[in-house]
Write a structure and sequence with these properties.
The structure is a single chain. This protein is mostly beta strands. It has two helices and six strands; from the N terminus they run βββαβββα. The protein is globular. The protein has one domain: Nucleic acid-binding proteins (OB fold (Dihydrolipoamide Acetyltransferase, E2P), Beta Barrel), CATH 2.40.50.
Length: 145
Amino acid sequence: MAVITGNVTRDPELRYTPSGTAVCSFGVATNHSIKKDDQWTDVPTFHNIVVWGKQAEYISGVIKKGMRISLTGRIDNRQYDAKDGTKRYISEIIADTVVPFTNKPSAEGSSEEAPTGDNTPPTESETATTEDKVEDIVIPDEMPF
């Protein structure tokens, strides 16, 4: 299971499979620090995130580019054939939970991160299983990256 906290790099794109299942995709950037020549530098890592079912619909209305979020999910690697006939490979995090955060002033005047929104995301039992989703995936001719 992957657990990451980072910033959303692109607004979520909500689509529907031919059978009507919602799927939302967006990007998240995380940072890690490395020391080079006695100086620390932040190095970004970019992740492709996919959310399915009712949670996808919820997330598409709540998450925006630049927001800080935390999520849990599993890493999925797959391949597809591009228009030119070459094989392309992609790694994605299939998210189980996504929690958006925002800076809200506390009583002492400092900022603390807190979840946003009044709605709670759907539970796992309200979303389709991964096996149900796989047969509905439509792979585009060219991936946008």
